[in-house]
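User: ok so my PI wants both of these folded by tonight, can you help

Assistant: No problem, let's get them done. Here's the first:
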Amino acid sequence: MKERTLHTILDGFQKMELQDLGNILGDNLSPRLRKSQLVDQLHTYLRAQPRRWMSHLMERDVRLLRELVHAGPEKVQYQDFADYPSLLEAVGLVEYDDSDEHFHKVWISRELYDIVAPEVDKVLRQGEKNGQYEVERIGLGYMNLYGIIPTEKFVDMLMDWYEKAYGPDLQTLTGILHQSPLVKMYRYNDRFGDYVCSPCVDNVEEIFSIRKQLKQRKYKMFDPKEAFDAGAGAPYFTVGLKTPEGMRLEQLYRRLGYEGFDLVKAEHDTWLEAQYTEQQNDALFSPLMDSPLCPALDDSSWLECCRIVRAYADSVPKWLLCGRTAAETGLCQADWEAWKTLPEPDMHSGEDYPQWSMPEPTVTDGYAADMDAAGYLPMGFAIPHVAPEDPCPCGSGLRYCHCHGKYLS
């Protein structure tokens, strides 16, 4: 695979984008410089001071760098598609490939590997020791609990927590917030004010609009421990797992065969979809349908599973309700009428699916373009040209990811 150099990557940015990137990474670039000078200065900074600019990254980015460094230069790591990219991926410093709809491929170039490898573990330890990542998790937690909140209110909550936890010296917190991209990256400004929002929010205007319709203006208060729990595990956050409803949800998913990362992802997806239950939301129950042991469920077991998911969805703080729950307010409750019986076709046996012809397989990295000449087709690499959310070609009426795609991917 042909790698781009850091200089080439930086040269692809506009002048203002270079200044923004330099600001995030701790290198103040003068607006008076020509673009070529900005590129040269930022390139020199990235090569000469890796420990400094990595300390300006969020925890998720540093952990991603460590994972890629430990794997080795140009070694592809296969990851799930997160709800939002890391900063390193967004700006192209870390290489990625999304051409395969089933995997997000990520790797580190030899050039960047040589720069960060000697320092990345030290930066990670420093972020844990000096409280930078603790502040970040609590900040992300407040964002996840509210969805979107005025910046001034957000900073006040962090300062209240920091003063109680570490004393009246707020200069350290101010320094951490200035260094961290937490506020810089997740800020939203409009004519109504200055806000920070959860990185998982994809439609700020919709949240404001529905809040206005529901007359939701007052924010519910949460303690820092609740915020910390809601902000850990980026990018796969899950809010409310330590509540009775959350613990029942986790027990349910474990009984249905989820474990490891698959369990984390199922819980995260359920929390995220619970934010959108002002209308019927089929995706809220997708982890049930996709669970390894779902085909073994009978109607009564399925109904109980749906009750647990619904109870959890109604118990979590909702963005539309400024952190209140559907159970508290009676608003935005999960609509589960369509899910009180097992979906059709019968999920107990894959033999009940209509038959259809497999499209020509795609060519995956490292395998011959002529599969007949290769003599075999590796398991899992015969992927039909159908997007996960498209109707299944078999004609069942289900989305591909819930029908034949569930068994072929």
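One down. Here's the second:
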Amino acid sequence: MLEAMNRTLHLDLGERSYPIFIGPQLLAQTQYYRPYIRARQVMLVSNETVAPLYLDKVREALCDYHLEQVILPDGEAYKNLDILTRIFDALLEKRFNRTCCLVALGGGVVGDMTGFAAASYQRGVDFIQIPTTLLAQVDSSVGGKTGVNHPLGKNMIGAFHQPRCVLADTDTLKTLDDRQLSAGLAEVIKYGLIMDATFFAWLEDNSAQLLARDPEALAYAIERSCQCKAAIVAADERESGQRALLNFGHTFGHAIETGMGYGNWLHGEAVAAGMSMAADLSVRHGWLAAAELARIRRLLVALGLPVEPPAELDRRRFGELMAVDKKALDSGLPLILLQAIGAAAVRSDYDRRLLECTLQGDVPMTGS
């Protein structure tokens, strides 16, 4: 019965291709790991919240390997170079060699940090992603973006490094709190907005089922999100073009996270407000109908997400934080804006005065 519920996707990147496994009770099954671990040394990386729940199951599945582990503090506030060093310390103290494999068991912070450690240790070793939050399952575990934050900017230090495989065990979502579930749904909504209007309409029709953690609804949302991301990453692995669409709402959102202090707003919450702001700016230019902005905001609210940035974040400071973004170019800061629900584009031709209106929260134009 469980096998019938499992789904397998493939991210096609030539010799760096890998599978994405989606389904219940995956993390305890050895067969999902063995083909992707090429040597004996395995370093398990988790955090203080997730490790007590799931680490023993992973250790049992990998009991034939030489296992070591490092447990990190939990939270975005700890996604920095100082905490990253703990992974390197463990690898060096246990004399792990360049054939070792790291296993990231946790949410996006653990996955990003473990991936960056794997990209850097001895100039690159293998790693496996076991995302345990919805946000990580639909977004951060797939695509090979790894890194840490800096006090002046989110994810400004990192590398592209693809995992050997991704195990998205849907049972781990049972222990996710409601706020984290909603935060993950923000990234799910993003895929509907940038490339799949039919999926967006499905989310509108199934918002109650998703919040109720209906297993089939969640599994479909994860599968469709991963399909969207895999298609974009396969076409543009290192973000030279189309992959930038995945940043919809993120330039605004990263400014919120940095300005409020990492961890005070969850990543998905900040992205939700950022998507609402990006849609607002699209309406001001006449590129997006005002009625579609209303639909976007209704769905965000229905799924427990904010549609406005924090009132206490100074708007001048907001603009300064947006300028310190890893997507900034010599020519300025491109933004991902909407032409319709399901159709996004990278735009550098937006009016800076209208951006200022969006940041200030002025009444939007009618739109087309």
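The chain has two domains: 2-175, 178-360. The mean pLDDT is 94. Good luck tonight!
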